[in-house]
């Protein structure tokens, strides 16, 4: 099995991709532990601050020491330099807010999953032509589940995941899965600033477990 298929399977199997960023290294690692305890085996860390790369490097070290089966992805990749830095740091997959051709070329040549954010059929066609197989619908709250329903038959070979605007409720999650997505990305609705600030890792773990259970029940129905 290829690395791209391994990551794709992991994200689809859990049906959820949690994403977060925190400048504090300890908080970053403690959130990762909570997500792992909840049953998460693929997570996206957001490259948005000056400490992102050093924190991500520590996440890889912790994963290697204590978290068998965990796949670590990096998000908000906007240029080739970032992609190269995180590839060296050991990222398992890469996510962008938009499609970046040189990033796609670099990562696909390394047999690494690249999931760009797309919000138009033209962008999706461009990404698919470049070899992308897993598309992030972004921003999900602007597009809505109806967009996914409208385009899914046009792109039968692609997997889709909305990020932005997906709530932790069954109604919200179910609307997206019924529309045809393979997983949902969830950031502040799951790992909120408030929970991070109060270091309430137990709630992060429990709410993640609840979302995983909701997704499991939706898939089974």
UniProtKB/TrEMBL annotation:
Record Gene3D superfamilies: Aldolase class I
InterPro entries membership: Aldlse_KDPG_KHG, Aldolase_TIM
This protein's pathway: Carbohydrate acid metabolism
UniProt keyword annotations, A-Z: Carbohydrate metabolism, Lyase
Protein's UniProt keywords contain Lyase: yes
GO MF entries: lyase activity
Superkingdom as given in the UniProt entry: Bacteria
Family annotation (Pfam families): Aldolase
Recorded family membership: Belongs to the KHG/KDPG aldolase family.
Subunit structure: Homotrimer.
Protein's recorded name: 2-dehydro-3-deoxyphosphogluconate aldolase/(4S)-4-hydroxy-2-oxoglutarate aldolase
Organism: Epilithonimonas xixisoli
